[in-house]
Amino acid sequence: MIILLNKSKRRGSHQMNIDVALKSQKAASKTKAVRKKYQYVAFLYIAPWLIGLFVFQLYPFIASFIYSFTDFTMLKKPSFVGLKNYIDLFTKDQLFLQSLKITFIYVIIAVPLKLAFALFIAMILNIKLRFVNFFRTVYYMPSILGGSVAVAVLWRFLFMREGLVNKVTSIFHIPAVDWLGNPKIALYTISLLTVWQFGSSMVLFLAGLKNIPSELYEAARVDGASKPRMFVTITLPLLTPIVFFNLIMQMVHAFQEFTGAFVVTNGGPAKATYLYGLMLYQNGFQFFKMGYASAQSWILFAIIMLMTMLVFKSSEYWTFYEDGGDF
Amino acid sequence: MKVRVQNIIAYILLTLLGIVMVYPLLWLVASSFKTNQEIFATIGLIPKKWVLDSYAQGWKGSGQYTYTTFFLNTFMLVVPTVIASIVSSVSVAYGFARFKFPFKKVLFALVIATLMLPNAIIIIPKYILFKNFGWLNTYLTFWIPALFATYSFFIFMLVQFLRGIPRELDESAIIDGCNSFTILIRILIPLAKPALFSVGIFQFIWRWNDFFNVLVYINSVSKFPLALALRMSIDITDVVAWNRLMAMSVLTMVPPILIFFFAQKYFVEGIATTGLKG
Amino acid sequence: MKRAMRLISTLCIISILATLFIGCAKEAPKTGTDSTQQAAADNKDKTDKKDAAPKNVTMRFSWWGGDSRHKATLAAIEAYTKKNPHVKIEAEYGGFDGYFQKLTTQLAGGTAPDIMQVDQPWLPSLTSQGDLFVDINTLKEIDLSAFDKKFLDSQLTIGGKLQGLPTGLIGITMFYNKTAFEKFGISADTQWTFDNLIEIGKQVHEKDKNIYLLNLDINKYDWIMKAIVKEKTGEQWVKDDYTLGFDKAILVEGLTWIKKAVDSGAVQPFEEMILYDKKAETNPKWVNGELLMNINWPSSFERFTESVANKDAKWDVTAFPISKDAKKSGVITRAAQVMCINKNSANISEAAKFINWMFNDDEAILILEDVRGVPATEKARKMLTDSKKLDERIVRATEVAIKNSGDPENGPTNDPELLEIDRDIIQKVGYGQLTPEKAADELIQRYTEKLAELKAKK
Predict the structure, then answer these.
(1) Over the stretch B51-103, which tens digit does the pLDDT of each residue have?
(2) In a designed cystine with A202, which of A118, C104, C239, C427 is the match (CB 3.0 to 4.6 A)?
């Protein structure tokens, strides 16, 4: 953000108004924030969560951690096996690294595409148009459908050999493709399903866009700034907290993705869409290997944690908070 | 003039993409009027042979209860959960977003960490916990955790939004004699309306569609929500009346769509229209 | 430094609290089961003293199924509770999706129902984890005379205990589109072999490129592959001592069948079939009558024929292939589902009485008809045939399958992890990623590793 602001400052004086507006806000809150001391009243506000954490969340959390060092099978009494589960995963289980690889590919494709698409549509839906309420609802609908039976059936219709997608591409003389049946392609098709259900990211972007004070745009308009410039210098910087949130959440979610691949391809063909979440579910609930699955989920936990920390660290350079960045 | 051209492009784009978005729903509605064979044989919308009684037949359900019961159950389960989630999350988010207190970073890291462990793994210990509380087969398994803000997603989300609201507003309110609670109620909640409505909508739709948790915690058919009722007659050997199932799926989607349609205007009424200066 | 201290102290507090929670949670289920066991014992005492008036009991009964099964079972429960007003039965029913996951969660949490419908393939893995179900042989309330003792012993007795009772019998059969067969000049009397399935399939596909003889999904390929191997070896697929029941050469023959079937056009290419794996009746080609034959349990007959668009098509059943020189038949027969009584139930005796009524009482038989497959008892079969409640073709298919049946599959063969390896290898051959030889190597290598692991667990 700072970089963006500086750049724009160098480019021309007509940006000054906005920059000053933003900067003065930031500076003001920062000086006051520094003076602040601990405010213990905060514990009153976070009390529900604190209680909830200790009563509902910590025990399952720690229990699963302990299970990961046992041969827990749900019904049998668990016995301690040390690091065996973790060692087996890395040395014996051929599916483990494969599903990890698939999952990374999936995350790298699906998350950026989904966010870009969601932001793009949110920008359009933020224009004052007629029937915009209707359009917003229409665009949210795929997300309401979720992982229902209807989605599974329909997705097969769209992407089967004689399906709609191939019919459309054949107009352009593109040969028919087995979108879901070909092991080399199925993962991308499943990623597309995720992108298609972009509704919740879109909603958050819309809410974020509405949070941007219109004064800033008015000031920019007075200065004669172009639309793309306003997007780069106002919209995007002020939307960064939401971009950040969406990125983290979609990433966390994508690493755990289960539903789409489960209802449409069930991990197939030939394990091409055997995402980590699917493997975990299978080990835990089909093979009863809860201890093993717990170890697997703690590895996933560590990976997600690492990725999230990277995004958090990097966010210091690109997110902008109206509260002065004081947290 | 320029605006008009821009709008026309936007309309065309929205309509084209919109067809892709809404086609599944149209297909779902269409298939509720088709025969079983046609549902799986063709992707077209207009049924060759109309089946008109699928809604009436489907509503009767299978066995003892009709969809009246399942709809009421779902509302009973979802509405208190949504309200509890909004209230508790906004309070917790406020605590994190606006105050400085010991261990804040550690605790916030914990908020986010709880999102990262797959649900499938913690479901057994959670089940045993709820069993010991004596809550199994009741909606308390959903209401109480919501009341204690265990949906970390919403806390994180609201923190992000609250941080987008300038602190000057709080500070001027303090000068006006507000305490921390009245700041939240009078200043921040009205400003964060778009975000609060997002929480409500998300929680509503997610709880409404949730299958795995209700499957595990609810036993009695008399307490089944829609997600379970819809799958109730799908067996691997029995003939399934897919058109009835599709009909009930369509009806199941109506409340979330209505909720979204009517709540979305609150995204529009963000700061932009209420005005920052107040 | 200060920060680090703070962090450490927080972690300490958290871990102390956590151990507290774990402490009580670990304790509680134990006392829970203790008390139910206690109650079970008490109850037994009471029923033993015959003079005691019947005490009011409430039992839970869970099953999965479709509409017809739900309706019939609820009607049966109503009829029973009318006759036995002191009994209340809470029905917990739903679809097949998630039933197994829910059941295992309940068993793990000590909250499983008194009476449970269980699928036979689940039994070996469930019972290997603990003593979950009451040994039916020990219950004097249940009259077993109507059941085929050999079947109970070979299929449902694990560890010397009869784990439950079969709701019905099913055996692999083939059903075909008679009308289409006539069109293609395939005789209805064809004695099917694994070879002529491919030959005739090839001819059909050559006549019409849109048509394939067989509608198979991965599970069915598995049946065929194993049947070919079993015919040659006369052994279980995996022996009881967790060693392989076949060698590479024979396995290659089984896998080659898959490759031949795909290459000859007797089956749809894997790229197209895979979309309908485990839901082959929704394959548009099947619905449109472009797949002529299906291999399945007889209980799926109606579901598959009903989903075909052409209502005029005639259907019939025929026997699953057996070679003349087969050492053992590859036809699998098993219980449709199994009714089990929870070992921790507080009402074992009452549950047993209800089950006895369900299986042996005339009224119950007529209410329940064939909603859980063709009944397992001779008496029920006769009653339903006499009253024309059973489809003649399904009865015929079941009888043929039972007559041709090979040995029942043992527990190790049906281990879910091994089945998953099969599915993997079958796809690799079907997609042409591996030759049958290479695939056989991979299967044997992966099986050997997994079997060592499974054996160690025992």
Answers:
(1) 999 999 999 987 789 999 999 999 999 999 999 999 999 999 999 999 999 99
(2) A118
Nearest to B36 among C65, C93, C307 (CB): C307
Subunit contact A63:C282, Cβ cutoff 8 A = no
Subunit contact A63:C278, Cβ cutoff 8 A:
no
Pair of tokens at residue C49: 């003293």
Residue of B nearest to A40 (CA): B101
Burial A100-137 (b: 16+ CB within 10 A, else e): bebbeebbebbbeebbebbbebbbbbbeebeebbebbb
Scanning every residue of chain A, which has its alpha carbon at the shortest distance from the alpha carbon of B265?
A: A133
Q: What whole-number distance in Å separates Cα of residue A123 and Cα of residue A236?
A: 11
Contacts of A74 in chain C (CB under 8 A): 104-105, 107-108, 129
DSSP H stretches of helix in chain A? 2-11, 16-35, 42-52, 58-67, 84-91, 94-125, 132-145, 149-159, 164-171, 186-196, 199-210, 214-222, 227-230, 236-255, 259-264, 276-281, 290-318
Q: Chain A residues with CB inside 8 Å of C452's CB?
A: none
Most B CBs within 10 A among C277, C307, C312, C369, hence the mutation to make, goes to C307
Whether residue B22 and residue A138 make contact (CB cut-off 8 A), yes or no, is yes
Q: Please tell me if residue A17 touches chain B, with a CB cutoff of 8 Å.
A: no
Q: What is the number of residues in chain C? A: 458
Measured CA to CA, the distance from residue C454 to residue C129 in angstroms comes to 12
Pairing of strands C87-94, C57-64: parallel
Q: What is the residue-wise DSSP string for A245-260?
A: HHHHHHHHHHHT--HH
Evaluate if pTM is beyond 0.90.
no
Q: How many CA atoms lie within 13 A of C197 on its CB side?
A: 27
Asked whether the beta carbons of residue A94 and residue C446 sit closer than 8 angstroms, the reply is yes
pLDDT tens-digit profile of A166-213?
A: 888 888 988 889 999 999 999 999 999 999 999 999 999 998 888 787
Across chain B, which has 278 residues, the per-10-residue mean pLDDT values are 77 89 86 88 85 92 89 97 96 94 93 89 90 94 95 93 86 87 91 90 92 92 92 82 90 92 74 38
